[in-house]
Amino acid sequence: MKRTDAKLDRVGAQLADLGLVQGEVAEDLFYRNVRGVFRKRRIQFKEVLRNLKKKGVAEYDIVAVNGDAVLVVEVKNKLEKRMVDRFLKEKLPNFPEVFPEFRGRKILGAMGALVVREDVGRYAEKAGLFVLTQTDEGAAALLNREGFKAKDFS
Known about the structure:
Elements: H1 2-39, E1 47-54, E2 58-65, E3 69-78, H2 81-98, E4 106-115, H3 118-126, E5 130-134, E6 140-142
Parallel strand pairs: 3-4, 4-5
Antiparallel strand pairs: 1-2, 2-3, 5-6
């Protein structure tokens, strides 16, 4: 019984490590490509920050900054509606409080995920969020339809 428990603990640790690695891959993909993806939409970011955090308070996966706007990107492996809701209700509204240096700028939101079902992507888009995912070539792309207007969450 003890050996079985030990094996189960090892398998659990391996699965947890795999999830962490996938999360890092997703975050790295969007971090490296956020400038290029948004440049195609005529939005240029001067600075792109990764894992912006205040210890014990909040952490934001990617924050891209230009003169008058800040894009806050939440990264997931597979995007679910509940994740969109949590980002909209909990994380995004707290951003200007946690990082007051960005107050006075438009706050835009985005969800990035390696896997995005169409209905979930449209759900996030209807909420005013940019939606990023990977292409079949492994690059990053925006799923938002032509003419999409991002919501200002400031």
